[in-house]
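Preliminary data (for renewal application), coenzyme A complex.
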Amino acid sequence: MNDKIKPPLTQFIATTTSWFRHAAPYIHSHRGATFVISVDGETIASNNFDNLINDLALLNSLGVRLVIVYGARHQIEQQCHQNNIPVQYHQDLRVTDDDSLKVAKTIIGQIRLEIEAKLSFSLPHTPMADAQIRCSSGNFVTAQPVGIIEGVDLCHTGQVRRIDTKAIEQQLDLGNIVLLPPLGYSPTGEIFNLSAEAIATACASQLKANKLIFIGDAHSELPKEMTVVQAEDALMDIELTNSHTLQAAVDACEAGVKRVHLLDREQDDALLQELFSRDGAGILISAMAFETTRIATINDIGGILDLIQPLEQSGVLVKRAREELELHIENFVVMERDGTILACAALHPYHEHKVGELACVAVSSDYRGSRRGEQLLTAIQHQAINLKLTELYVLTTQATHWFLEQGFVAAEISDLPVEKRTLYNYQRNANVLMKSLL
Ligand SMILES: CC(C)(COP(=O)(O)OP(=O)(O)OC[C@H]1O[C@@H](n2cnc3c(N)ncnc32)[C@H](O)[C@@H]1OP(=O)(O)O)[C@@H](O)C(=O)NCCC(=O)NCCS
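Predicted structure:
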């Protein structure tokens, strides 16, 4: 049936089914993962907050281990203004005097109750029907005073001293959502007001969380994906509306968190889009440099030679002259990371036989064992299929088992295209392996 004439319900079901199928790999990979999600005070005050709560409940149901750190800066400032309490900042940190601490304790307590109430909502005919979310909060953050900076006493403003990761892990193991307020307690029994971003960052790095997600201001001035180095440059170069979260993201990456996401509080579906779609919805700051897999160009020859020459010298790969590489460079696929070639493979097609030779498969020794070889092979297979080839073969002396595990099967020299058969090097005695692409 043509899509245009499909009744709306059928179309809706088809779209939902397709969405679910595309989301399946993400659902599998997020199960059991730990996400620390920092939600600022303005997000809590926004109209989208109820939807966000539903989405957090859904993540919990899907087996994601969730730590939610909430901020209250916006609400505390509002209340201080209402009570005529001066709001004073020094070096971007609030000076929390006795009066502001009183306000902070009340507001932070209220917000916690509201979040707990929202997470308890489970009426039928709502997205949270039967959700049964349990959430837990406690003295998980030990704080110490920031102290006096440039002569200004920040009073009850604190910084993270320790996170009780063991206690948090125990709650997560029970399937509970851990809710952390922007407060910490000192061993002397005092309460300190902390930034939610700082707690989230410390928590994510100490818990070795898979992701740290900040929900707050939009950063439309930033690219969708950045390495930590690019994020550091952006902090210096770009006029940011709010650089707290980007700075926290950089700090988190430097403290070992692999992926930090910045999401716009105004975008209703940002969290689910970011986690369950390939393109995401926010800004991803990655501790690792980004890698690309692409067709090689003549500029890659130096990098490819650096990669394969040691393997040629040890006899693992057949020697190739530079001219030969130059002539067939468009047959090569390379994986590049920050200008360095990490891996390469070549596909030499024999169009009339609909067969391709896979050759020169190499992953830099520092990067082996992380499925890059497998990814490279997938890229080559896509290319072979695009070229309408139906079979791949490879000659190998030392990686037979690796190719067998990639779906190749043993073949005979007589199975090779005649042009290749006549060139077969009997002294090298390589195994012949084939893989059908049909
Ligand atoms: C073979 C090669 C491309 C695999 O790349 P890779 O990125 O390390 O591979 P993957 O991460 O996808 O797979 C790793 C798995 O393959 C196994 N493996 C790696 N090289 C292997 C080999 N030569 N023989 C058998 N198994 C091998 C690893 O032990 C690992 O197994 P595990 O998953 O049980 O731990 C890489 O080892 C390499 O460059 N080798 C030297 C060059 C070479 O032999 N090329 C083939 C010539 S045609």
